[in-house]
């Protein structure tokens, strides 16, 4: 009879396509992206061409999903990314990629804790007169997320489902109202033509928009993480992957196009409207680009739907969107710890599940790490949004895309030997994806100073000359995923020389 101290398997058959898609779309936090990333991409990037950029990036990730889905039919492991890299490039490379992935997932969860804490602090003071610092609200969210994660993934999926439906409805209703009021056909070329997408060049506006677009998709790859808990991994995971990427792509492109259309549909009108709606405080847009980016879509909703009822709903759903994202990443991180514990890379105690089927020690470790970081930021009087959110989300983008490149290469190596898989799935699609992802990673790293507000004094990160200009701390953050990969590689090599060597083979199971 299994119990929490002896069980090292996740409960089978608990999730279908819909449940997994909810987790993945929740991790992408669409409303958070619309209130945060899209306005910044428009103002500092390629303005009216931002919707086309999101569509182009989504297509690249759909191509990546071809090989990724094919690989999921051959390998079912809650470690997903690092299991795939391990299969194709060897177990040591797999462990290295696992540590880089962990950095990505941990930092994005920390980023959202900072954002939700900051938003709740302002929202509760304005609506209820309750004035508490951001970290108090972050801790309250932390308690709820930890409890739900321990109850089992089913409970989490149901919670996410309710939040996600409401969130998507607000975006669809608002966007539809814009198109009814303004039309759309006249602005299609301004947003989706190649000239619009690549306006400003890779070293300027286009590169900035590409960086924000790739960062907005972080979390879609989590479909395979839930393979062991799905009803039929070989069918469910591929379907969930395509659905998740497709939904995120259409949602971002559709809503961003509605936003651009509502603001006039041209580069000049979009830039002026975003700056007018969201720039607050002193300084130029480069110094203080978006003091309140959420005001952009909130203002559009108010103008096109009459009154403030939709923006009020959106204001609270931004919070629920953040909550859904934190919960989704809590589950993903815990399952990575579970897989690494089962493989012998980390303590084997992490490979334990409770009676609900949740990786209990992985959940606890994830929660402990989060509360420690929140406490450190609070103790040093750092801001939840300006510091924790911006710094950590920038690290996440670099980490996950770096691992996606490794996965693409591993797919070519592994599936290329399998004659039952088509050349398109085994070779062409992953190679195309690797090239696109490499370009995106280059853009992300070159514009990391903008994503994390980490440019040296007197350097304008929005100009071509500002690329790759970082403070010392900025360089540490941008290199953190690669440092983690080296640590993982060394740890794997050390374990290979002792009694734990055979346990590493679990990564390839």
Task: Pick out its properties.
globular, mainly alpha, 70% helix, Amino acid/polyamine transporter I, single chain, 0% strand, 509 residues, disordered N terminus
Structure commentary:
- By secondary structure, the chain is mostly helical.
- It has one domain: Amino acid/polyamine transporter I (Up-down Bundle).
- It contains 20 helices and no strands.
- Helix 1 runs parallel beside helix 12, helix 4 crosses helix 17 and helix 17 crosses helix 20.
- The longest helix is centred in the N-terminal third of the chain and has 38 residues.
- The chain is globular and about 60 Å long.
- The N terminus is likely disordered.
SSE blueprint and pairings:
Elements: H1 17-28, H2 30-35, H3 37-44, H4 50-72, H5 81-89, H6 91-128, H7 134-151, H8 153-182, H9 188-192, H10 194-197, H11 205-216, H12 233-262, H13 267-278, H14 294-305, H15 309-342, H16 360-379, H17 384-415, H18 423-446, H19 448-451, H20 472-495
Gist of the model:
The longest helix has 38 residues, at 91-128. The chain has helices at 17-28, 30-35, 37-44, 50-72, 81-89, 91-128, 134-151, 153-182, 188-192, 194-197, 205-216, 233-262, 267-278, 294-305, 309-342, 360-379, 384-415, 423-446, 448-451, 472-495. It is mainly alpha-helical and 509 residues long.
């Amino acid at each position: 009879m299994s119990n929490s101290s002896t069980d090292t398997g996740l409960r089978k058959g608990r999730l279908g396509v819909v449940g997994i898609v909810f987790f993945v779309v929740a991790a992408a936090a669409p409303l958070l992206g619309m209130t945060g990333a899209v306005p910044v991409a428009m103002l500092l990037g390629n303005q009216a061409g931002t919707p086309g950029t999101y569509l182009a990036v989504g297509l690249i990730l759909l191509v990546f999903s071809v090989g990724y889905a094919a690989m999921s039919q051959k390998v079912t492991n809650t470690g997903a990314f690092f299991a795939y890299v391990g299969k194709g490039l060897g177990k040591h490379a797999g462990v290295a990629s696992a540590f880089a992935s962990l950095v990505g997932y941990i930092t994005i969860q920390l980023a959202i804790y900072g954002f939700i804490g900051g938003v709740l602090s302002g929202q509760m003071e304005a609506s209820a007169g309750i004035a508490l610092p951001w970290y108090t609200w972050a801790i309250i969210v932390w308690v709820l997320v930890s409890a739900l994660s321990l109850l089992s993934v089913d409970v989490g999926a149901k919670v996410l489902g309710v939040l996600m439906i409401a969130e998507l409805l607000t975006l669809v209703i608002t966007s539809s109202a814009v198109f009814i009021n303004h039309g759309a056909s006249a602005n299609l070329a301004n947003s989706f033509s190649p000239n619009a997408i690549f306006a400003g060049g890779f070293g300027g506006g286009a590169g900035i928009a590409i960086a924000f677009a790739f960062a907005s998709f972080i979390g879609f790859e989590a479909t395979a993480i839930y393979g062991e808990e799905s009803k039929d991994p070989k069918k469910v995971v591929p379907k969930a992957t395509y659905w998740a990427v497709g939904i995120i792509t259409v949602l971002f492109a559709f809503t961003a196009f509605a936003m651009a259309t509502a603001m006039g549909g041209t580069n000049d009108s979009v830039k002026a409207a975003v700056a007018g709606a969201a720039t607050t405080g002193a300084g130029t847009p480069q110094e203080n680009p978006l003091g309140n980016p959420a005001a952009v879509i909130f203002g559009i909703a108010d103008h096109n739907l009459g009154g403030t009822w939709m923006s009020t709903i959106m204001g609270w759903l931004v919070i629920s969107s953040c909550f859904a994202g934190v919960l989704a990443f809590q589950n993903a991180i815990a399952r990575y710890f579970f897989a690494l514990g089962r493989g012998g890379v980390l303590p084997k105690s992490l490979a334990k599940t409770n009676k609900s089927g949740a990786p209990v020690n992985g959940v606890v470790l994830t929660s402990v790490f989060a509360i420690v970081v929140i406490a450190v930021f609070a103790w040093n009087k750092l801001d939840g949004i300006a510091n924790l959110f911006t710094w950590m989300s920038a690290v996440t983008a670099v980490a996950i895309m770096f691992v996606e490149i490794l996965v693409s290469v591993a797919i070519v190596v592994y599936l290329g030997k399998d004659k039952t898989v088509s050349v398109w799935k085994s070779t062409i699609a992953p190679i195309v994806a690797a090239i696109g992802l490499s370009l995106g990673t280059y853009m992300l790293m070159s514009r990391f100073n903008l994503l994390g507000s980490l440019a040296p004094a007197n350097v304008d990160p929005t100009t071509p000359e500002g690329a790759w200009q970082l403070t010392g701390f900025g360089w540490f953050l941008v290199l953190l995923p690669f440092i983690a990969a080296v640590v993982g590689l060394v740890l794997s090599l050390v374990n290979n020389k002792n009694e734990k060597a055979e346990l590493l083979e679990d990564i390839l199971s």
